[in-house]
Write a structure and sequence with these properties.
globular, 179 residues
């Protein structure tokens, strides 16, 4: 029985580090992201990848999830969606930050709940301590992460009833390309 992890936001630095860590634990992967690096696309542990540029046959994230659920059985999910934006922001920047940081995660969790996915044992969601502190420097990003915290708290009892741990990981000051 293979250990398989589904990673959303597979092109983020933190997701890449997670990939490298779990490869050493003999996991295989299904990757969903904007632009999957060539070295990952051809990695022998990658069972499938869904890249934004190739989503033309899928209408939305729900259809990707349905395809993944239909074709694979996986025990772990990592949601590493993230979009930062530094002021000054326009209305479309604000909407995209909330869409990527909150709405996409809500959609993913809702799909797993609605499909009654019983084979997933752990869902890891990467949040940020920014959702707890609300700095003046970037209130839009910080509030989107605060909304993500609340979203996960609301879903935790639902997934607990499905025998699945929903774990919100609040990343602190991490050095990535985004910071």
């Amino acid at each position: 029985n293979r250990k398989i992890m589904l990673i959303f936001g597979a092109t983020s630095d933190i997701a890449m580090a997670t990939f490298e860590r779990f490869v050493s634990q003999n996991f295989c992967f299904i990757l969903v992201g904007r632009h999957i690096p060539a070295k990952l696309r051809s990695h022998d542990r990658v069972l499938a990848f869904y890249e934004k540029d190739n989503w033309t046959k899928f209408q939305n994230i729900e259809e990707i999830i349905e395809s993944v659920i239909t074709n694979y059985s996986f025990s772990h999910v990592l949601i590493a969606q993230g979009r930062m934006g530094l002021p000054p922001l326009n209305a479309s920047d604000v909407a995209e930050i909330f869409n990527v940081n909150v709405s996409v995660t809500a959609c993913i969790l809702n799909c797993f709940q609605n499909e009654k996915v019983t084979f997933v044992r752990k869902i890891l969601v990467l949040g940020s301590i920014a959702g707890d502190r609300g700095k003046r420097k970037n209130p839009v990003y910080d509030s989107s992460k605060g909304a993500l915290n609340q979203l996960c708290q609301g879903y935790q009892p639902i997934f607990r009833e499905m025998n699945c741990d929903l774990i919100l990981i609040k990343v602190g000051n991490a050095r990535t390309k985004m910071t």
